[in-house]
Amino acid sequence: MTRDGSTLGADTRTAGSLPSDPIGDRGALDPVVQLTHASLALSGRSIWSDLSAEIRRGEFLVVIGPNGAGKTSLLRVLLGLQPTTDGHALVHGRAPRRGNPEIGYVPQQRAFDPEVPLRGRDLVSMGLDGHRWGVSVSARANRRRVDRILALVGAQSYADTPVGRLSGGEQQRLRIAQALVGDPSLLLCDEPLLSLDLHSQQVIVQLIARWSRDHRATVIFVTHDVNPVMSVADRILLLAGGRWGIGPVDRMMTAEALSRLYGVPVGVVEYAGRICILGADLGGHDPVTARGEIGE
Amino acid sequence: MTSLWGYAFVHQALLAGTITAIVAGAVGPFITARNMGFAVHGLAEVAFTGAAGAVLVGIAPEIGLVGACFLAALAIGLLGVRLRERDIAIGTVLAFGMGLGVLFLVLYTRYATEAFSILFGAILAVSVQDVLWSAGVGAVVLAALIAVYRPLHFASVDPEVAEARGVPVRLLSVVFLLIMALAVAEAVQVVGILLILSLLITPAGAARRLTAHPGRVVAYSILIAVGVTLGGIVGAVYTSWPVSFFVASLSLAAYLLARGLGGAQARA
Question: CATH assignment of B2-261?
Answer without folding.
Answer: 1.10.3470.10
